[in-house]
């Protein structure tokens, strides 16, 4: 509304969504395409202690900077590589399989159209795959030879698992879940996981531990970016993300099974760590510079995985998804996928006329949600805001939900704040919800409450819509019609060059 009309979301409002056509199968294909586009830099001889984290700080805050692959990292074999800065610029579109000319809101809308009615396609078990090119077991296991960085100077260790996903099985139902949970290297044969309470992997783990049984787990450290994205997107309970990955691609994901756990993982994975969490085995984990932009505290007693096997392709590539202060790529990719999932969740809860949704990058795509509606009845905005704050995609570690009218571009932070400033009367327009789902990572939870497990926070639902019962009399916006705006830009836009 306030910007160059060519950057607005108007073309998508026509319902003209682009078709999904993925140009890659695995991480290597994806990298080859990026290299062809001239979007890839290769750095050799970097240190895992410092250099990789420094490069991330320099590259990842800004949109459109090249991807970087590190090879010959100090102390690691040549060919053992790590990729960073991959979800930015038009690589977002490449990763999700959509044309490069879609802006982020259009991309999210196309992603939403493509995913909303997908039926899962069951993964297919095959005998062999590239991931078994190297099978390492017993005394030969050494997870420290992969180029896992110390991403932030104050991290408690090297993190091999950032752009990873962890595969577990529900001991009662057999449901296979994939979720991205950070993975720290303890030593050659042990890695530690941090899984927040309520996450599906944590529910599985709690069940095993309650029975006194070891929990089998496989950790995929290098996958194609889309599979990683799928595994870190909220899927309903009981849904296997491997089958969602297949649904997105339109064909079953070929999986091999771990020799020790029997768990399935994609046959074209780059590196897979397989092992067991044994009841009672815990160690300090973290601290880790987290997505909220803070150096989260150390977790006192998190379980570790005893590694039974490492499988990897020749010259394996790790997928890195480093956390730094916003804005950065984590927030960018979660914004696109969460906005789509959130819109679907709200619609499925029965809220009509949800025009657009944006999970803002500045809040790590969780803490600041903007919901655009076409108001139909008194209470519509309150209903939409409360559902957004409490549905599956919006419930975890949220903070602020703003509901705006459909004339506001939800993906434009300035427009959303303008609506808050001008259409919300704070005394009547802000609802507070108490005792909501949060996490030990939440900076507003006091150290005492964290220790006591009081991991709650509150939510503000801000109604920034024109008051429903007199909205027709609300002052008119001082902005030209789209046609008049386009005419002004066509005539005078050159003055800005
Ligand atoms: C890069 C990245 C790192 C993440 N790290 C963690 C983590 O350490 N622990 C956690 O509980 N969730 C983490 N998440 C969020 C979960 O992956 C996400 O909530 C996902 O939906 C969990 O899967 P689930 O719904 O199957 O439990 C991370 C997400 C990303 C993208």
Going by helix content, strand content and strand pairing, the class is alpha+beta
What is the CA-CA span between the terminal residues?
Answer: 21 Å
Note the overall shape.
globular
At CATH level 2, the architecture of the largest domain is: Roll
Total individual domains = 3
The CATH topology of the largest domain is given as: Pnp Oxidase, Chain A
Largest sheet: 10 strands, antiparallel
* Average pLDDT, all residues: 94
* Tally of DSSP helical segments: 15
As a percent range, the share of helical residues equals 25-40%
Describe the protein:
This protein has 497 residues and is an alpha+beta fold. It folds into three domains: 5-102, no CATH class; 119-319, Roll (Pnp Oxidase, Chain A); 329-488, 3-Layer(aba) Sandwich (UbiD C-terminal domain-like). Helix content is 27%, strand content 24%. The protein contains 15 helices and 22 strands. The strands form four sheets. Strands 5, 6, 7, 8, 9, 10, 11, 14, 15 and 16 form a ten-stranded antiparallel beta sheet that branches. It has a five-stranded mixed beta sheet with strand order 18-19-20-22-21. Strands 1-2-3-17 form a four-stranded mixed beta sheet. The longest helix has 20 residues, at 329-348. It is globular. The structure holds flavin mononucleotide.
